[in-house]
């Protein structure tokens, strides 16, 4: 599948045959500027087959605004256009690519959804606050993904810069943990993503 | 690939088309007794292709013996027969199968290496103490796996029962964290597995 | 303050002048049998003064029953007789004594509330799932303790044995995380202890 | 004990009778500018008595420089003048004051040692990477503190700003985790503080 200039590789893109090192000096900006898009993204047939054969590694990010003491002042959620035209509320989530490190995957997915000036403060340790297991069968757990079995490493990441939603992301909305609107937002996040927000706030010690 | 009676599915086996729920009442003993071996293990061609296309989700377990206060008294390591006939020292490690939960994967891999009477005390939270990223290119990180890009969720798991090494696992050796032999054992674990032992002991607050 | 035979040292007891090593071979049973009660418990005047002068280190334990995969099947809570004769629902909580290790404090407080046959499975790492800060001023945080500023390291601890409530603890009640009764129990735990149960379940990945 | 203008309250200062809320709008700068020094610091007799009666709650901070991916690029250590005139290498460490939150204690102690422009990035969760237990008896654990039994919550904190060592802190030295000099620095940190650096790097997944 050819990747066009200035196009962000999306979740169905692929990455075989890419050699280690090609990502070494790539910053989120490189993914945006397009000229240095990583080679080797595969067609959708391959990723579709893999999705029915083995668990897919994901990162899922709860974006937050913090004060100078590290306390969460606002929790972010994304409004996104689905393939069927509906709008859904969700978090930042994406597949880890072949030969991509978790830190690269986190930076790339944040840049993809929030733009290149978001200035994420990626944590010192990659110990996730939880691991969410999404199964393709509804009802067996609180986490459901029709496409695949996904193992998602979940992180809370403070965003220090400016957000410019991109591509299918229509808007980023921020709300204080103590605001009653948060309950409404969480209830709008389907398939367990709202639960991940609650787990994040519990882990952070935020009132919610 | 047919799975024979009493055979433990190995790392190259596969699991497509297995429905959620087939593992629901399966205990490690089921994997051992053979009559209820999960259906759907795939041939090695599929898993080999996937290994060159996307990261593979793994669990890696540092088995320990603890005292009544939860302190590590002994760290276990496995002596295993490699395919080329050499013997290597390693930890308990295995792929997460399609539609298998992390807790099932942990229990299955421990039963596979230590036998069905090991009585692992799987922790209440699946927050791993570290996530080890193995790349198929030597030298780019401390973790190397020639076969694949593996994302390995690492856990320290107390073993309360009796260990009977099985299959390619020749022996399980236990040593106290304070014993100088541990340094020797760690140096014998290649490709970063020894480093995972050190990280486990640091996280547990054990002297080493 | 003299400590009588078979009496469990309570929260107002003290421990000055005790030498390191006196606890080394003490198991929870020793605290119960009485003959080996640690020396040096101080009078209540000293502990009262300290409570108004500096933060007091505590451990707080959410007792759980787990299945063979480590999943929480039941959460425990204590019914306790208050000094004023009222009955309150609470968790296992107690001060860390001078020269006592955290592991000793955890074992001692569990034995004190659940009896000597509770068989707690103290975790390999003492990294708490949260740190609750109780302040003596109502309303400033979700955690309130009229007596003191307490810094409480919180742990989820599986109980493998039999519970015999002791002293002021009247009963231990167990309920499944998915049971609607849990919400009622949590609402009965005042001063933030119910919130600690919610944080524990979120960290453990339990449905609640 | 009177606290003079522009003086940083030191570890022997005290805090009784301070009301909750007096710290609410206090930033590290307030501690520095002096005019708003918190009231209620006690004399050394009281703190000395408490140190022999019960465990003292501490925070201990490993300052680091990170890159845009959150990886540790440098680890900081302090050179400090001891009371006897000797120079020792250490970390940022300090007592939590009465009615002071952990986040306030972290910010205050960093400002005290690194100055008011250090811009620490205090983490979203106060789950410490380890809890170090210092006992006043040499040899019983790897952590020793002649003055007291201290329970120290340990954090790795990225420093984004400029450091101006203050008071008894003579200098802050930074070294890359992969630099052989780090081993030398660690060996110069007595009483277990070097071990905390190793635990921090293991938890962060840094090579060392």
Automatic annotation (TrEMBL), chains A, B, C, D:
Residues 1-20 are annotated as: Disordered. Coiled coil: none annotated. It holds the Pfam family DUF4916. One of its GO terms (molecular function) is hydrolase activity. The keyword Hydrolase applies. Keywords: Hydrolase. InterPro entries: DUF4916 (IPR032582), NUDIX_hydrolase-like_dom_sf (IPR015797). The lineage of its organism: Bacteria, Bacillati, Actinomycetota, Actinomycetes, Bifidobacteriales. This is NUDIX hydrolase family protein.
